[in-house]
Amino acid sequence: MSRTTRYDTLAAARRRPPQVDGNNAGADRRHRHQTIEELFGSDTFSVSEMRARLPKAAYKALMETIQNGTPLDASLADVVAMAMKEWAIEKGASHYTHWFQPLTGLTAEKHDSFVTPNAGGGAVAEFTGEALTQGEPDASSFPSGGLRATFEARGYTAWDPTSPAFIVRSGGGATYLAIPTAFASWTGEALDNKIPLLRSMAALDAHTRRALAAFGVEARRVTATLGPEQEYFLIDEEFFYRRPDLMVTGRTLFGAKPPKGQELEDHYFGTIPERVLAYMTDVERELYRLGVPVKTRHNEVAPGQFEMAPIYENANLAADHQQLTMLMMRNIARKYGLLALLHEKPFAGVNGSGKHLNWSFAWEGGNLLEPGDTPHDNLQFLFFCTAVLRAVERHQDLIRASVAYAGNDHRLGANEAPPAIISVFLGEQLLDVFEQIERVGSASSSKQGGLLGLDIAVLPPLSKHAGDRNRTSPFAFTGNKFEFRALGSSQSISFPATVLNAIVAEAIDEMATELEADLRKGMALEDAVRAILAREIPRLKRIVFNGDGYSDAWHKEAERRGLLNLRNTLDALPHLGSEKNLALFEKYGILSPREMESRQEIVYEQYFKTVNIEGETAAEVARTMILPAALRYVDELGQIVKRNQQLGIESDGALSILRETNGLVNQLTGTTAELVRQNAELGGDDVHSKAHHMRENIVPAMAAVRDVVDRLERLVPDDLWPLPRYRDMLFVK
Ligand code: ADP
Ligand code: MG
Fold first, then answer.
1. Are 84 and 164 found together in one domain?
2. I need a surface site. Which of 91, 398, 502, 536 has the fewest CB within 10 A?
3. Shared-domain flag, residues 431 and 385
4. CATH of the domain at 641
5. Does 133 lie in the same domain as 43?
């Protein structure tokens, strides 16, 4: 009989110095003596590397592509490949890979050696322009949502020169060059997250420049900017490997709420535990090396939960860097005996993890969502801000669908994450400006923040923002950007960003067309803009909500306003393929209807598979771990009762526990049998009916099993309980 769980807790709680193993030691030592400036981007084929290594003409041409989006001249490829290869080999790379983002939401790579045998029987390092620009990984095993049959295998990766190549250093001394690429099928359809993102950026660029031109501003290039805040949990790896549910599904399928959770709110922004800080520092340095500008780190609300955020970058780079960040967070944790959990809801009863996607757009002259001190007379800002409102108002469904998947169903709509209803928080100052426009057609003043006096002579006066923050809103204006808060922690930010770019591009396109027409009629710019705002804002007000998004009152109010409330994945998903949304993506050349429908299909399939695996895992753990533990306890209690009877001792106490435990054992066998029965059914042949079988039958069957298991956990002796408990996992640091 194994009674070791408690000992594991003790072992895990013991101070554990970071293990510096042979190969990482070199990297660690190198890092430790480098300043951030030296380290930052040192393993990327950066602009300064290019300047130093490329012939002047080639460098200039490449910069044209990177900075201004000019089409890449194919003849450049050989020159760049040569320079990149030399640089990578100096860095110790032996292989190169086209690094891409298939629709699994993760990244993929296939390695090729630089070394090619030569005629003399030796080997030379070879890397041609063609090898740089185009790769041909087998596409058949990546999700294609019906775009490709299994036998139609051909897929291509294409070099994205706007995201710098980088060096990956992995344990065991493997060092290789990774080249960011886009991934498409032989038929030319997008099979990845990068292609639609780049296309959506191009649409936003084109239409925003048009609108700016109407304002008399000649912009060279407009880019979407993204700053994703990443929440995650860290637990000791000892526990992870003792929990098949965590290992297989990324979340605990069982676990009684600990007596102390986040009630005391003593973890948020608390001092970061030493082991965690060592881990964070290591992750940050690795990311600096790759040119990822990580900036903030802190404890989050739940015990064992943390957050990390970079400085914002252009959307394409930010999306690549976010994937790298998640990768590094996962990989490096192991060095510290930790596991980084990126799942949206690893633990029931304590907060889950999200990802806040800060979004804005800028031209070379600055951020287009910067209101300045007097937003009421900043017509250009009001125009673009109104365009965002118009986009969100019209496409609530698409925004909601962009964050719909199984993991996020545990979060959205629960009282810790934004509600599933999409609305916009504007803040006091802007709301006031918009309300003035709504009332009288224009705004004449902006509320000011002023200074916050603390009445303590030695403390400096604080400058106060013009409005408070609101953390219950899914889409909040936070000073000079919008913060889309409904993303799940494990999600790729590319698709939600693609949606934001696309819908805002459309709104700007339409508003710019109106503006241009009015200007042609001879209207003055200011009058024309004011007229558009006066027309738009009253209509858009229903999407604006500054109050408490968690409250029941808001749910009723939202219903009255006719806003959508798409509670879970399967409610939201049909909207991905609606006529309105297919038309939008097609019109702006972002995804064809076929590509869109294939994506929708993939999300259905992933939903079905995720819940299916959870159902199977729950049944297995219940039958092979929980039930035996409970039966052992019943057996122990039975023996006690029997002995008491032989000795003529009164045994009411033992008997009542025996009855209670035995009762739960009976319930557990019943609920587990039902889960097993549901698991055996797949719910039909197509992914839609399978997905619905998961939501309607598997999810409730799992909940019924969990309910009994969690009650047993409070009853069965600690030394018999086979799974590490929440209190162990969440509080050992
Ligand atoms: P908070 O917790 O207040 O939301 P953080 O500092 O944790 O703030 O995160 C704010 C994020 O927003 C950072 O990643 C920051 O770089 C990003 N951000 C700031 N300005 C912009 C912008 N113009 N466009 C996109 N993201 C931005
Ligand atoms: Mg935030």
1. yes
2. 91
3. yes
4. 1.20.120.1560
5. yes
pLDDT score recorded for residue 29:
53
Q: For residues 699 and 610, is the Cβ–Cβ distance under 8 A? A: no
Q: Residue 143 CB: number of other CB atoms within 10 A?
A: 19
Domain membership of residue 510 (yes or no) is yes
In terms of C-beta distances under 8 Å and separation of at least 24 residues, what long-range contacts does 528-533 make, across chains too? 529/379, 529/380, 529/382, 529/383, 530/379, 530/441, 530/442, 532/383, 532/386, 533/379, 533/382, 533/383, 533/386, 533/437, 533/442
CB hemisphere CA count around 358 (13 angstroms): 17
Q: Which residues, 6+ apart, have CB-to-CB distance to 493 below 8 Å?
A: 226, 228, 318, 319, 322, 355, 357, 487
Ligand 1 first shell, C-beta below 6 A: 225-227, 229, 296, 309-312, 356, 358-360, 367, 480-481, 483
Ligand 1 pocket, mutate which of 268, 295, 296, 312 (most atoms under 8 A from CB): 312
pTM for this predicted structure: 0.94
pLDDT tens profile 520-559: 999 999 999 999 999 999 999 999 999 989 899 999 999 9
**Ligand 1, atom 2, residue with closest C-alpha:** 229
* Contact call for residues 621 and 615 (beta carbons, < 8 A): no
Q: Helices 379-394 and 194-214 meet at what angle, rounded to 10?
A: 140
Residue 607 amino acid letter: Y
> How is 452-507 classified by DSSP, letter by letter?
E--S-TTSPPEEPPSS---SS-SEEE-SSSEEEEEEETTS-SHHHHHHHHHHHHHH
User: What is the separation of C-alpha 662 from the centre of its chain, rounded to a whole number of angstroms?
Assistant: 43
SS3 414: coil
* Cα 194 to middle of ligand 1, angstroms: 22
Q: How far is the CA of 674 from the centre of ligand 2 (A)?
A: 42
Domain that holds residue 714: 606-731
Higher pLDDT, 715 or 171: 715
Structure tokens at 388: 């965002």
Query: How close is the Cα of 216 to the center of ligand 1, in Å?
Result: 29
Quote the CA–CA distance of 55 and 74 in Å, as a whole number: 15
521 and 651 inside one domain: no
Read off the pLDDT of each residue in 693-697 and give the average, rounded to a whole number. Answer: 97
Residue 223 main-chain phi, psi, to 5 deg? -125, 145
**DSSP code for 19:** P
| pLDDT cut 90: percent of the chain above it | 72
Structure tokens at 233: 């949990």
The span from the CA of 705 to the CA of 673, in Å, is 9
Tokens 């918009």 sit on residue: 434
The alpha carbon of 298 and the centre of ligand 2 are apart by a number of angstroms equal to: 12
Q: Are 730 and 252 contacting, i.e. CB atoms less than 8 angstroms apart?
A: no
* Residue 178 backbone phi and psi in degrees, to 5: -110, 130
Number of domains comprising the chain: 3
Residue type, 490: S
3-state secondary structure (DSSP) of residue 310: strand
Query: Which atom of ligand 1 sits closest to the CA of residue 480?
Result: 23
Closest to 163 measured CA to CA, from 34, 81, 98, 66: 66
Phi, psi of 413 (to 5 degrees): 90, -15
- Examine the fold and report which residue of 499, 530, 558 is the final residue of a domain before the chain moves on: 558
Phi, psi of 304 (to 5 degrees): 80, 5
* Residue whose tokens read 């640091």: 733
- How far, in Å, CA of 676 to CA of 615, rounded? 8
Same domain, yes or no: 518 and 625: no
Q: How far is the CA of 228 from the centre of ligand 2 (A)?
A: 9
CATH number at residue 147: 3.10.20.70
Q: What is the pLDDT of residues 31-90, one digit of tens each?
A: 567 888 899 999 999 999 999 999 999 999 999 988 888 888 888 899 999 999 999 999
